[in-house]
Amino acid sequence: MRAIFFSLFISVQFFSCQQTVEKQKLFELKSAEETGIDFINEVKETKEFNIHTYRNFYNGGGVAVGDINNDGLPDIYFTSNQHENKLYLNKGNFQFEDITSTAGVGGKKEWSTGVVMADINDDGFLDIYVCNSGGLEGQNKENEVFINNGDLTFSEKGKVLNLDNIGYTTHAAFFDYDQDGDLDCYILNNSFKDPSKIELYKSMRDQPDEAGGDRLMRNDNGIFTDASAEAGIYSSEIGFGLGVAIGDLNQDNLPDIYISNDFWERDYLYLNNGDGTFNEDLTNRINYTSVSSMGADIADINGDGFPEIFTTDMLAGDNYRIKSMVNFDPFHLEDLKYRANYHYQMIQNCLHLNDGDANFQEIALLSGVAATDWSWGALLFDFQNDGTKDIFVANGINKDIMSGDFRDFMSSSDIQKELATSPETFDFAALSEQIPSNPLKNVAYLNQGNLKFSNATDSLGLGTPSFSNGSVYADLDNDGDLDLVVNNVNMPSFVYQNNAETLYKNNYLKVSFKGPKGNSKGLGAKVTIKTPTSMQVMENYMNRGFESSIEPSLIFGLGKESINELKVVWPDGKSQKLTNVQINQTLELDYSQANESIIPKNEAPAKPWFTDITKETIRGNATHLENRYNDFDQEILLTNMLSTEGPRLIVGDANSDGLDDFILLGAKDDPDKLFLQSKDGSFKPGNSKAFLNDKAFESTCGSFLDYDMDGDLDVLIGAGGNQTNVEKINFIVRLYTNDGKGNFTVSPSKIPPAIGNFSTLEVSDYDKDGDPDFFLGARTVPGNYGLGPKSFLFRNDAGTWTDVATDDLGNIGMVTDAIWEDCDQDGDMDLIVVGEWMGIHIFRNNGGIISMSETIPNSTGWWTRIESQDLDGDGDMDFILGNWGENSKFKASTTNPLSLYVNDFDDNGKSEAILNWTAPLDTQSFPFASKMDITMQMPSLKRKNLKYDQFGRMKYQELFETDKVNKAKAFKAENLNTGILWNDGGKFTFKALPVEAQVSPVFGIIAKDFNKDGNIDIWLGGNFYGLKPQVGRHDASKGVLLKGTGNHGFEAVSTKESGISITGQVRDALSFGGKIFIARNNASMVVFE
């Protein structure tokens, strides 16, 4: 009995302790009463001054942290838009004192925005630079510089230092860009210009704006000089700067600059040339940016030593706010912007993954960090001191100015009439009362490794709804973990204490800097630490998030590990290496102890796996030219174009010389091109006259085959495309017979009796009668996405084609690819077919009869390609399958699949396809289409007079009549991963390939032992541009090489190591003659060896 009581007592005590631990959050919100910080950025609209007359009215203020009196405790400065700025002195133990008045730093200008603390005059004390945007008329907006007198008082010296810029300044950054030893200043301005009046067809980027525009101010003996023009900095009126981040992006030990711009203008990426100038090179290194890029931060999120770039935007994470708040441009407008020299943009946060050479892949959707709603500050820091960078995003805007219902209200005839007739007396403040106001949770993501993050906002204690803008992290209580401070609009600021020290007890190292003359705080110093299992690299720059700055020090979380080695590299290249560094302490790095020698240049890279040999291999024009056609004009509900899925490659010995040749298939009005191989391995154009005569066809698939059994290879080419304005004759299969020398003649009397939009043509003598048969897979019914097209299995009966496809095969669905292979090792060829909204279907060959054998369980997906190879050397063939990947808004699983419902919902004689998805913050699915798109496709829905608020809450079943819903044809997709179907003696198991294979849709697959180590490797190519802006371009792949490691394992090889780093949309890839041939949509072929 006593033992039972003791056991019960222990259990109760353990449960009680467990409950206590679970109740304590990582971040604990401290009250104003506890901290003494009572700051509120209060803004109030008036009839004259409001969100309608001043577009940045609710952009909020910033926050800076830094030790202004060198007592070892970071102090806090908040900016206010309509009231006095505030400085709080840290007294220790989370106690702060408002010393604004005695310090003289409240500010005398109007509408303060960003703030940064830096030792501008190099006296060892942090000064405060305050950015201002002025009043309604732009008056009284000079930036202010509060020079620290060393006695907790400051003197304003903006004009003296020539830093009193008069633009609409958002933020500023201090760093030594010209490597002369002192701190220079980048001033980030937001254009005076009304963005609605920007003429998209004019490029104004190179036209300086004398009153506004960004400025790079060089420090010339303590006085700052405008060096923007000579340094290569854009200062135009179309720069709507909202974020500035500094970091060494290309590993040359020079500070580079990333600028976030709002509206149409793209972001800027300035790479430092090392001679006082910059090369703005974003369009060559980043495929697209956020539309309304706001806060920005630079840090290494995957531990490879190369810093990533993270920017925020305004994409909501739930269906309701997406439907009611977000306005996506139509495809044709996006195309117009691009043609007017505006870069591609997406409404989403962007996480740009650095490949080591400052070339980036955008992976926010794959990582799960793309949608955080109306987001401002972005902070990359280690919440738990576990050694990985997590992400905090400050969210919210005081008025939902993008509300669809409010936009409709504003465009009503009554409002527009009053605005037109009485603009001077119009009461905008009263109008603002009509705008919804919904505080939002800030968002916190925990780094899960493998490029993935999980939303842990509530569990971390950061889920209080707010209107947050500027934010910073700092170790306010010197316990070794990073606390959090947030500036809010019209509500108290947030001060969060980080409890990682007590909750996790992880190790850490805090690093401070004693810099050289001119740079007392060591800005720009780069610190690398190595532990037994990992590496971390951090740089000492202060600009973080939105309008905010951190203190000039670093904290490395270590988990349970120790430090093997620490290395610091100072801005001038001097370095110091330390070993056996004590953990859980503050380590001061002193410039005077650094080595005199400049750090050695990077060693020459190892020879890559592949070399680009295109120039010496292709002796002619091997370029695919896509015809211009907008699929969305005819089928508004499509998410992706169906007319840009070429070109494919056909390989065979066309001229009977024993060497493989190839045909590059063409788009409509782009003829197919024959290339003949020479003995030296190069390829030159062959006789393509027959193909030129048939250039009206869109060639989508094909194969060499000896149709007439005369010993040479003839060609079958299938046509397709999604154009609805072409004749049916353009959708036939063509047969070209060969004279044996590579001269082809079309044979219209011998063509198979098939019309359709075909995607794959796979040849095999499956019935073993000595002549070639083929499977012809159909992609879609043009103009009627979702309706089942007719596929064919043509048996060759002495030159006559007979369709012998069973119903299962002929009506299998929207086929994208197929392959003949002996799956069960019974000596005959079986057929595996994949497609969109289809499973992986295996048709067994039983004595020349092809019939459905099995569908791999839970395999429905958006499959794109299939290739075979014995990957594990067990004697049977495995299959590599290309799919849509994970770097997309669309996610699928067996428990939460994507769905598609097809019916003539509006009785207009044409089917509609309703795609349903689950948004990141939702637990149930909704139609993906926007209100505008679905009512344009089905105007009858306008009779319901749906408000955006209503539409955002409606499920598919609520949009249409019950009878239409019940009779709709239903499809689902459970798996979007590219992966391998492992064959174990005829039993199949699917396994996804590593995350690097999921960055983009895959259309090119090659499996081969490239490095001759006995393991099969895999190369994947992909990307897809023809997507609605609501979906976004999928272009993160530069080609992915996966090294086989044995035991069904694969690991990614960097593009630098592989040697293959290509842009564009790969549509096919083949390997023959020891080379890799890659075909791209609307681009030239490339060849690697």
TrEMBL record:
Gene3D superfamilies, from UniProt? Integrin alpha, N-terminal (2.130.10.130)
Keyword check for Cell division = no
List the InterPro entries hit by this protein, alphabetically. Crtac1 (IPR027039), FG-GAP (IPR013517), Integrin_alpha_N (IPR028994), UnbV_ASPIC (IPR011519)
Please state every residue range assigned to the domain named ASPIC/UnbV: 522-587
Which superkingdom, per the lineage?
A: Bacteria
Entry's Pfam families? FG-GAP_3 (PF13517), UnbV_ASPIC (PF07593)
Could you tell me the keywords of this UniProt record? Signal
Q: Does the keyword Signal apply?
A: yes
Q: What name does this protein carry?
A: ASPIC/UnbV domain-containing protein
- Source organism of this protein record: Arcticibacterium luteifluviistationis
